[in-house]
Amino acid sequence: MYKKTYDEPIKITPEQAAEFISLTYDGQRDISQLVVDEYRQKMIDGIFLDGNIAIASLNGNRMLINGQHQCWAFVESGLKKFPAQLRKYKCETLGDVALLYRQFDTHRGRNIPECVSMEAKALGVEWPRKVLLAIVSAAATLEYGQGKRITKEVRCKLLQSYLNEGDFVVNMLAPNGKLPNEYLFLAKGPVVAEMITTWRKCHSAAEGFWGGIKDRDGLRKNDPRQTIAEFLLRTVVKSGYAASYRTAAHPIEIRTKIRMAWNAYREGRTISKLQYKLGRRMPPVK
Description:
alpha/beta
């Protein structure tokens, strides 16, 4: 657990702000110039609230956990002093750093992708960002139900318990560490939820099923993998908007049709159409 070692109000100088900015680390979010410009103008106008600066120390290395946008705005403002509360923390592990990072949701708040990416760094996970977020989304669905709203804190904690499942998904979609464009149609929360569900049911069958879907090499007409691949390629997850050349489908419909194709594949059957009826429960995975 992290421990607070300093907590005092100070008036930061431009030199100190520049020093704080230099305390970068792997996983730190990118600077938004729009946010910097907004903060800078508020500082010049005298309406910016006192700053909130936090620095973590891990094995002698210091990291600016909170305040990089504030410091950049102050440096660019040309002002001489910047009142702020400076807090310093000692951390024992990268996990402590990630936990501390999530607590500072002031000024420009941390969104889910930023928090999840930081947690992944702490766990030593180097999955492609889009696949990482799809895995966490899938984990949330499988643990709490489709469409349930859960906190960033809970989502981050889910990652550690889904490392094995995540490795399967990453090895399937990004074996070389990068997600090819031709596999993007599979890097979606509902799809990854079923990748995990089928893998848990039978590792070898899941490898054959999803390997066939992603590559579609030599598949015959009405092969369940070909049928579901065609559906997924032309379908986006329903979120109120869909491109005109695609069909939007609810996550439950997507997951249901994947299970239909999976069950047919497991039973050695062909399937030409995937019929979905609104309100019907998803079939069990065979």
